[in-house]
């Protein structure tokens, strides 16, 4: 009976945490897209940077698409368009906020180079990449499908 209760508990925990995930690549194929929220030069640069590193790590190239329609697994970069309703009051220029809601990853900018700094923070802090080195190195526990020097 104790095993059944424990199994039920963990099953419920997985069901409540799994829906928040954003899957960028599955089995070497892109399942997400990068959506710059405006024609801003910095948002476009941040989108290309994220696209480049996802491809280096996984071998899959995420498409960059400007759109006003939200899809599952979207990565939205910037502070306009699909991110316009996200609170930016406490963000200063060059500030950013990383958040995920409903299978969507949002990199919200406070202006300036905030979008770019948000992508760099995502890559370094959350994905464990060491960007300050000559060769990009994934976190030691991460086993990328395909890497390029």
Short description:
By secondary structure, the protein is α/β, with parallel strands linked by helices.
- Low-confidence residue ranges: 4-18, 144-149
Tally of discrete structural domains: 1
Q: What would you report as the Rg, rounded to the nearest angstrom?
A: 17 Å
- Biggest sheet character: 4 strands, mixed
Briefly note the structural class of the backbone: alpha/beta
Name the CATH homologous superfamily: Chitobiase/beta-hexosaminidase domain 2-like
The shape, in one word, is globular
- Provide the helix percentage: 25-40%
Number of helices: 3
Output the helix-strand order.
Answer: HEEEHEEEH
Termini separation comes to 53 Å
CATH topology descriptor: Chitobiase, domain 2
Strands, count? 6
Mean pLDDT: 76
Q: Trace the largest sheet across and list its strands.
A: 3-4-6-5
CATH class: Alpha Beta
Q: What is the level-2 CATH architecture name?
A: 2-Layer Sandwich
> How much strand?
15-25%
Structural commentary:
This protein has 149 residues and is of the alpha/beta class. The protein has one domain: Chitobiase/beta-hexosaminidase domain 2-like (Chitobiase, domain 2). 32% of the residues lie in helices and 16% in strands. The protein is built from 3 helices and 6 strands; from the N terminus they run H-E-E-E-H-E-E-E-H. The chain has helices at 2-17, 41-58, 114-126; strands spanning 25-26, 29-30, 33-36, 74-77, 96-101, 104-109. The strands form 2 sheets. A 4-stranded mixed beta sheet has the order 3-4-6-5, covered by helices on one side. A hairpin with a 2-residue loop joins strand 5 and strand 6 (104-109). It is globular and about 40 Å long. The N and C termini lie far apart (53 Å). Mean pLDDT is 76; it is low at 4-18 and 144-149.
């Amino acid at each position: 009976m104790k095993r059944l209760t424990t199994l039920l508990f963990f099953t419920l925990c997985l069901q409540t945490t799994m829906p928040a995930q954003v899957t960028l690549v599955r089995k070497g194929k892109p399942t997400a897209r990068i959506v710059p929220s405006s024609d801003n030069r910095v948002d476009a640069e941040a989108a290309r940077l994220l696209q480049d590193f996802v491809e280096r790590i996984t071998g899959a190239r995420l498409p960059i698409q400007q759109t006003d329609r939200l899809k599952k697994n979207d990565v939205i970069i910037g502070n306009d368009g699909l991110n316009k309703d996200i609170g930016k009051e406490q963000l200063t220029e060059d500030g950013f906020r990383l958040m995920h809601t409903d299978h969507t990853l949002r990199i919200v900018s406070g202006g300036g180079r905030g979008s770019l700094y948000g992508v760099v923070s995502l890559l370094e802090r959350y994905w464990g990449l060491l960007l300050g080195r000559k060769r990009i190195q994934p976190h030691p526990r991460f086993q990328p499908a395909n890497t390029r020097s």
